[in-house]
Write a structure and sequence with these properties.
The complex is a heterodimer.
Chain A: H1 7-15, H2 45-56, H3 61-69, H4 91-97, E1 99-100, E2 106-113, H5 118-126, E3 134-140, E4 145-150, H6 157-166, E5 170-173, H7 177-216, H8 221-240, H9 244-256, H10 262-282, H11 289-322, E6 327-331, E7 337-341, E8 350-353, E9 362-365, E10 374-378, H12 380-383, E11 389-392, E12 396-397, E13 402-403, E14 408-414, H13 420-434, H14 441-468, H15 470-483, H16 487-506, E15 509-511, H17 514-521, E16 525-529, H18 530-534, E17 540-546, H19 548-558, H20 564-572, E18 582-587, E19 591-596, E20 599-604, H21 606-611, H22 618-629, E21 633-639, E22 642-650, H23 657-666, E23 670-674, H24 679-688, E24 696-697, H25 702-713, E25 718-722, H26 728-733, E26 736-739, H27 745-750, E27 753-755, H28 762-796, H29 802-822
Parallel strand pairs in A: 16-23, 16-25, 23-24, 25-26, 26-27
Antiparallel strand pairs in A: 1-2, 2-4, 2-5, 3-4, 6-7, 6-8, 8-14, 9-12, 9-14, 10-11, 10-13, 15-27, 17-22, 18-19, 19-20, 20-21, 21-22
Helix pairs in contact in A: 3-5, 7-8, 7-11, 8-10, 8-11, 9-10, 10-14, 11-13, 14-15, 14-16, 15-28, 15-29, 16-28, 16-29, 17-28, 19-20, 28-29
Chain B: H1 4-27, H2 36-42
The chains are: A alpha+beta, B mainly alpha.
């Protein structure tokens, strides 16, 4: 499967001017794989297999549909794994995942990998017509989910999965099928609650307009009573139906004696309702129809956002574990291979892992002992390191990493939660739960505000009762209640936050909640990951010395290799005029040699130069030493037995990193770097971006990164910026996790902030914008509290009657709204930073 | 003006009908997946051959 065409090869084919499209995925076919004689060209065996299957089944229409969808979807080669999926037919799997309904139909939900666009939906949902016994397939694109219904007497789940696999889609069992169903029901309950609350609030608002209109132009008592009764009935409905959740929570809080934000909210809402009812029966005073219903709606919106965030975090933890395959290919004593679920693996078992697939367990790499032959591994999941790392026999390998160049055998030491990937998932879960619960600002202030105002109102009535008589005392209390309407206060925070988040989003900064802004504004230190955050996260050509033609020959030779260094060379150097190399031999991890136009070309390490007996002049060694001090890997190019050129490759530092770090430090943030790479590499990068060496730590495991963040947290709140799964736990342990573009999917989801604009450039904007938003909120709170305090004092003194109060009430709300919508800006970071 | 005694309850009844329509839709998972159905609608099948394919069992 390593020969799977990747886009890098596509670039190469394009360079050589012979662009041939793959008949299945439409990506260019690598020059080496093109078969001039054949009618249809394929970029890889996966695509060929899928194309053949589709034509054999009469599903060619897929290509027509895919062409129509092409603009909005990415394309990639089909991946056919050829797994047996035997574990899906086991009774223990059926017991956990499969439901059988009354007609004997079986049904189950899965995650589906390989979905791209609408054409996939058509293709998959057309399958039941061709496969007997398969009744329904239903795709959910947004969630990459698949609902399957089949007749268990005619077909097995394993054979359905094999069919889908043959088309390039992998069926993955859900980790927790019951939980998914529960989430679905909860989502629906929230949706209904929100919808009903919004409908009641808008109707109450309409009625309230009529009532306030009546204050200005007096209307007959009959009409007024009519409106008031309707308004109060709507308020009762709103509190009893969607708002019931607050009372239920408050009651639980009372019973268990644990203070809860819903308690003051419930008291306030109940007091509003009671005084509204009493006033309606008395026929005078405010009935709070629109205030109570709007408050219920706004509070519910806050709760809903919070609920969604928590659920998302939980699902992403699941996602990390999903990166580790659920099935292992166990090698039996007789040499045959059996597919079994990883739960059934025992330590000491032998497992075979095809090249390019993830290792399902932690274990020890098998092979001839003492053999110098190493297998290159992609360890990105664990270390975030961009370069493949060589592992030799007898050394440990970890779940979730991938062997790149050949199939391997692993002796199992631990599986599941015991693996390093499993422990990282547990760390993420633990770190997320350690974070203080998100308390929506609306609740925090709104609830206590209501309680305070009611207390004041009762105080006012009680104080004046004996002095100026019951009627006048009540009037002052009601005026106080009206003039201190919580609308302005309730709106102040959410509006400023919404406006801040909206403006940030327009600049490619996606913030996942108001509390995040608050935490960013208070952050003291910023911890940056190196690979992919400060650096580009990919290998690129950084230096070239010596003969230009030799370098072009090297690039021509490297076209036939998939090694990252080869990719970097091919991408940076135009070798268009040279034909493909012949007699190519590649020594994994060392170099590559071949002939082009009769010249012998060798590209590789110093050791490889020795192996091909190439002469190494002193200037070349000088260049290599220079590259090494800058932590770049030198690569020698020998033509006809003499080294003619030296190039150096490395992970380039993002050009804007230095300026951003300087700007952050200028604003008083402590900036630190935590890297999984070798400490020497980390120090070199720190030097290059102007960070003192004591602020940078290298060679950190994901676990050590968490400790690093926790250590920094002692001095104050921490923002952790990273891109990979290896940063996940650290991001969750920090007060704010920021994921930079092109990061791992799981990283994007666990993060509180995602930067879509590329690199760390938006980081300075983010910090400055968050501070400005918090200033706006404080200003708004000060204005509305000041206004309310003034209004309450005037009402207490009898200087405001309810009519004037009702007119004045919206003024504070309008002021606050105007400030909230105009103030927070995310673009005011000094522009020089980005240059 | 007395028409308001009729107009307001009628408008509330309409609102109630809308709320119940919304709940009905939510209970039938109409808001479950907002991405796939619009695609599915556009990716219609060839009209003739498999008119009732979905129900075949």
């Amino acid at each position: 499967m390593t020969s799977l065409a990747d886009p890098r090869r596509a670039i190469e084919a394009e360079r050589s001017g012979t662009r041939i499209e793959c008949a299945h995925c439409r990506l260019p076919v690598p020059a080496g794989l093109a078969d001039v004689a054949a009618e249809h060209q394929f970029c890889c065996e996966g695509c060929r297999a899928v194309w053949t299957t589709l034509h054999a089944c009469g599903l060619e229409r897929y290509y027509e549909l895919a062409a129509r969808e092409a603009e909005e979807s990415e394309t990639r080669p089909a991946q056919v794994t050829g797994r047996r999926y035997a574990h899906l037919d086991r009774p223990e799997f059926a017991a956990r995942h499969v439901r059988i309904d009354a007609d004997g139909r079986a049904g189950a939900e899965f995650r589906l990998d390989g979905l791209r666009c609408g054409a996939c939906v058509w293709l998959i949902e057309a399958l039941p017509r061709i496969v007997p016994g398969l009744l329904v397939l239903r795709v959910d694109l947004g969630r990459s989910a698949l609902h399957v219904e089949w007749d268990p007497d005619r077909i097995g789940l394993g054979s359905i999965a094999r069919r889908l696999d043959g088309l390039g889609y992998q069926l993955l069992p859900l980790a927790n099928p019951n939980e998914r169903e529960l989430d679905r029901l909860n989502d629906r309950r929230w949706l209904i609650r929100l919808g009903v609350a919004a409908a009641i609030a808008s109707n109450a608002m309409a009625v309230a307009f009529a009532i306030y209109g009546g204050i200005l132009a007096p209307m007959e008592l009959g009409y007024r009573l009519f409106f008031q009764w309707i308004a109060v009935l709507l308020a009762v409905l709103s509190l009893a139906w969607p708002g019931r959740v607050f009372f239920v929570n408050a009651w639980t809080a009372l019973r268990t004696r644990t203070p809860h934000m819903d308690l003051p909210v419930a008291v306030g809402l109940a007091a509003m309702l009671v005084s509204g009812l009493v006033n309606t029966m008395r026929g005078t005073g405010s009935i709070y129809g629109e205030s109570a219903t709007t408050l219920v709606f706004l509070l519910l919106v806050g709760r809903f956002v919070q609920y969604r965030q928590q659920r998302k975090a939980r699902q992403e933890i699941e996602l990390i574990t999903a990166l580790v395959p659920a099935v292992a290919r166990r090698l039996m004593a007789d040499g045959s291979i059996e597919e079994i679920p990883i739960d059934a693996l025992r330590s000491g078992d032998l497992v075979q892992v095809p090249a390019g697939e993830s290792v399902p367990c932690d274990g020890v790499l098998r092979g001839e002992a003492g053999s110098a032959r190493t297998t290159r591994f992609d360890l990105a999941l664990l270390t975030g390191e961009s370069m493949p790392v060589g592992v030799s026999a007898g050394e440990p390998v970890f779940a979730g990493t991938r062997p790149l160049d050949r199939p391997i055998e692993v002796e199992v030491t631990s599986t599941g939660a015991e693996t390093r990937a499993g422990r990282i998932a547990a760390l993420v879960a633990e770190a997320s739960s350690r974070r203080p619960p998100i308390v929506e600002l609306v609740n925090r202030i709104g609830g206590w505000f209501l309680a305070t105002v009611l207390l004041f109102a009762f105080g006012t009535a009680w104080f004046w009762w004996g002095r100026i008589g019951g009627e006048a005392a009540l009037e002052r209390a009601v005026a106080l209640l009206v003039v201190t309407c919580p609308c302005a206060l309730g709106l102040a925070t959410p509006l400023a936050i919404m406006s801040g988040i909206g403006k940030a989003a327009r600049r490619g900064i996606f913030i996942k909640g108001g509390d995040v802004l608050e935490r960013i504004a208070h952050a003291r230190s910023v911890v940056l990951d190196k690979t992919g955050t400060i650096t580009e996260g990919s290998v690129a050509l950084l230096e070239r010395h010596g003969d230009d033609q030799a370098i072009r020959l090297a690039a021509a030779l490297e076209r036939s290799s998939a090694h990252p260094i080869a990719t970097a060379l091919v991408a940076a150097i135009d070798a268009g005029e040279f034909p493909a190399a012949s007699d190519v031999t590649e020594r994994s991890g060392h170099g590559i040699a071949g002939s082009i136009l009769g010249r012998r070309v060798a590209v590789g390490s110093q050791r490889f130069m020795g192996e091909v007996d190439a002469v190494l002049p002193e200037w070349a060694m000088e260049c290599a030493r220079g590259a090494l001090t800058n932590v770049r890997s030198p690569v020698f190019v020998a033509v006809d037995g003499t080294v003619a050129a030296v190039v150096a490759v490395g992970d380039p530092i993002r050009p804007e990193a230095k300026g951003i770090i300087k700007a952050l430090r200028g604003r008083g943030h402590a900036v630190a770097m935590a890297s999984g790479d070798h400490p020497a590499v980390a120090r070199a990068v720190a030097r290059a971006v102007g960070l003192p060496e004591d602020c940078c730590a290298g060679g950190l495991t994901p676990e050590a990164k968490v400790d690093f963040v926790l250590e920094s947290r002692r001095a104050g709140p921490v923002i952790m910026v990273g891109d990979g799964v290896n940063d996940l736990a650290a991001m969750a342990a920090a007060d704010v996790g920021v994921a930079v573009r092109n990061g791992a999917q799981a990283a994007l989801a666990v993060a509180d902030v995602c930067l879509a604009a590329g690199g760390v450039r938006p980081l300075a904007d983010l910090v400055a914008g968050a501070r400005r938003t918090m200033t706006t909120i404080r200003l708004n709170l000060a204005i509305s509290i000041g206004y309310n305090a003034l209004g309450a004092t005037l009402a207490f003194a009898g200087l405001v009657n309810p009519l004037v109060a009702a007119i004045l009430m919206p003024v504070s709300g309008l002021t606050v709204t105007a400030i909230a919508l105009t103030m927070p800006r995310f673009d005011a970071a000094p522009r020089s930073v980005s240059r | 003006m007395s028409a308001i005694y009729l107009a307001l309850p009628v408008s509330l009844l309409i609102a109630i009908a809308a709320v119940f329509a919304f709940i009905w839709a939510a209970r039938r998972d109409q808001f479950e997946d907002l991405d796939t159905p619009p695609k599915r609608m556009l990716l219609d099948d060839e009209p003739s051959r498999h008119a009732h394919s979905g129900d075949r069992s």
